[in-house]
Amino acid sequence: xxxxxxxxxxxxxxxxxxISYRTAFAGQVVSLVFMVAAFYxxxxxxxxxxxxxxxxxxxxxxxxxxxxxxxxxxxxVAVRSFADxxxxxxxxxxxxxxxxxxxxxxxxxxxxxxxAFLVTSLRVVLTLLLGMLLFGVRFPDANxxxxxxxxxxxxxxxxxxxxxxxxxxxxxxRGDPSSWLVQGLSYLLGGVYYPVSILPDWGQxxxxxxxxxxxxxxxxxxxxxxxxxxxxxYSLFALLLFSAVAGPISVFVFWLAxxxxxxxxxxxxx
Length: 270
Known about the structure:
Elements: H1 2-19, H2 22-43, H3 61-71, H4 73-92, H5 95-99, H6 105-133, H7 144-172, H8 177-189, H9 201-207, H10 211-224, H11 233-264
Helix pairs in contact: 1-6, 2-3, 2-6, 3-6, 3-10, 4-6, 4-7, 7-8, 7-10, 7-11, 10-11
């Protein structure tokens, strides 16, 4: 119960900070509208054309890329928000003070990212609504319950990448290579903008090591084709396996980095 109250306090704090910058919030909404519209008009170039690589997802490019745009947002916030929590505390000089509070460091980092995930969820909903209300996308057979399960597994697997990034920020202070490497490979090979099947063999092999590949594959089949959980069991297993492997590794790296900076006395350096 105490943990929930602390979590709520972090969410309220971040919300009050966010609404104090209303122009920035409005700018994000306008930017999202422009981005969705741009991909809609891009997709019109393929009208009347049969694209074999899109057939497993219904054949239309715009719904395909709309799901990719929406749910890939979670990767960005997961990779950045954990590291940003550490980075901001270093810059403000509050990291050492936070670490000596009764609240465990793990809770501080997780609670500091909850609001970012809530805002991202709102962004995902808004992206899908824009596609539906303005550009005629429909999800008549969507398996929303299955999509919710995949979403939970997606957030968990992406979050472990964020914990790893936070550990790297603690250790090297700047220029976290894990962040740009993971995001770069994910957007290049993970099927955000185009099907993984069009990649060369080596690209398809590498794509199978990225959680975003399996998350988007499952999401598209569930939302666009009304697939059952049995139909996406390979993707579910891949997400679970990734979490089982990356989870302990990322937590170990983070605590290793935290112990090192504590011994070096470099917590407040950035």
